[in-house]
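Encode chain A's predicted structure.
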Amino acid sequence: MSDHPFRTPEYHAKLRELQEVDFVLVELNLYLDTHPNDQQAIQQFNHYVGERMKLAHAFQEQYGPLMNFGHWYSGSPFTWAETPWPWQI
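Encoded structure for chain A:
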């Protein structure tokens, strides 16, 4: 097992959890485009928005930013380029 934080099972599990919530949000968004008055779907969407925010915050606290501009504070030195790109995971 490598000591590099991006090569750990925990990193991959947390990233996958974020991707799963993102998938749910995309699907609910598409559904709500055609069913804008479905209160249950709106509640589910809002629930998963909150979950995604919590997961993303925890992930970024531990591993760094998920996006390179305007969504997370930078440490010093600027380390965005040190994290793996999506195709490297």
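DSSP finds two helices and no strands in the chain.
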